Amino acid sequence: MIRDLLMNCREGNKKEIKKFIASAESLDKGNCLNASFNAVANAYRAKTVISPLKKIQYLATFNKEIMSAVESADAENRYEAVFLRYLIESNIPKGLGFSQNILHDRKELEEQAVTLEQKPFSSEYKQFITNVLQKLG
């Protein structure tokens, strides 16, 4: 469900972004994957506000939360946590300083690409990941 909502956010539709944020907020933050989705929700909040200061605050929160989530990710969830960080960081203007992991993450995702087929993701989500990596590559 949360993955489907995430895929809908890529079009920039604020209604879909708000659905994703609400769903991410309801997740139990006790595991690294849910924490990753919550971090992504903060990044998307930055898209919904007008104030540049608020945008920076949301991105800073995203940065802090996603770093913690990736660091605590177990082997089973690491690929997706790194992908979520890559997805957002690759869309943040480089000058803001919140995109320092792009090259490392891309390399890790490419090295682990063979494991994507083994993940319990829907075929649509696997295609979404593949498309993001091809588009941003």
Which properties best describe this structure?
137 residues; 0% strand
Whole-number average pLDDT? 91
Which shape, going by the Cα principal axes? globular
Radius of gyration: 14 Å
Please mark out the parts with pLDDT under 50 across 5 or more consecutive residues, or reply none. Answer: none
Strand content: under 5%
Measured as a percent range, the helix fraction is: over 70%
Number of strands: 0
Query: How many helix segments?
Result: 7
Topology as H/E string? HHHHHHH
Quaternary status: single chain
Quick one: biggest sheet? Answer: none
Structural class: mainly alpha
Termini separation: 27 Å
Give a short synopsis of this structure:
The protein is mainly alpha-helical and 137 residues long.
Topology summary:
Layout: H1 2-9, H2 14-25, H3 32-48, H4 52-72, H5 75-89, H6 102-111, H7 123-136
Helix pairs in contact: 1-2, 2-3, 3-4, 3-5, 4-5, 5-6
Characterize the structure shown.
This protein is mainly alpha-helical and 137 residues long. The chain is built from seven helices and no strands. The radius of gyration is 14 Å and the shape is globular. It starts with a helix and ends with a helix.
